[in-house]
Amino acid sequence: MKIQAYLAFNGNCQEALNFYANLFGAEVKNRQTYEDKEIDVPSSYRQKLQHAELKGKGVHFMAYDASPDTPLNNGNQINMSVDLDNLDEGKQLFKDLSSGGQVHHEFREREWGHFGRCTDRFGIGWMVNVDK
User: Can you tell me the distance from the alpha carbon of 62 to that of 7, in angstroms, rounded to the nearest whole number?
Assistant: First the structure.
């Protein structure tokens, strides 16, 4: 069994995937736009992503730009959880993810290790964990 996150965006999926690719050292794969799809979207939306995947060492999720007639609630129905072994990397990752977004739980020591939860500038919730 494999469980993956599938993130929906309001037209800025490519920008978000570029941000995450840089942050996690991953690549955008299987990039498909609405261009040749038989889907009723405005011509101005044809270059938006109908499907893409972010793949790298330890990261793999899918994402797309929801069609303009699909209401989104800024990603509050999904959280991405990242587990790391290195405290300094965890601190930096949390700082980068929360930059321009909102911190819900400061990255600090907890009973099980270090943890922080934030919403990034694209409206996606993130939980960063570093075990003791």
Answer: 6
CA angle centred on 99, ends 29 and 122, rounded to 5°: 50
Q: What is the pTM of this model?
A: 0.80
Give percent above pLDDT 90 in the chain.
67
Identify whether the C-beta of residue 105 lies closer than 8 Å to the C-beta of residue 71: no
Among 122, 125, 126, 127, smallest CA distance to 16 is for: 122
- pLDDT surpassing 70 at residue 75: no
The H or E element containing residue 90 is helix 87-98
Q: Which two tokens stand for residue 108?
A: 């600090």
Looking at the chain, which runs of residues are DSSP E strands? 6-9, 27-33, 49-56, 59-65, 79-84, 102-109, 113-119, 125-131
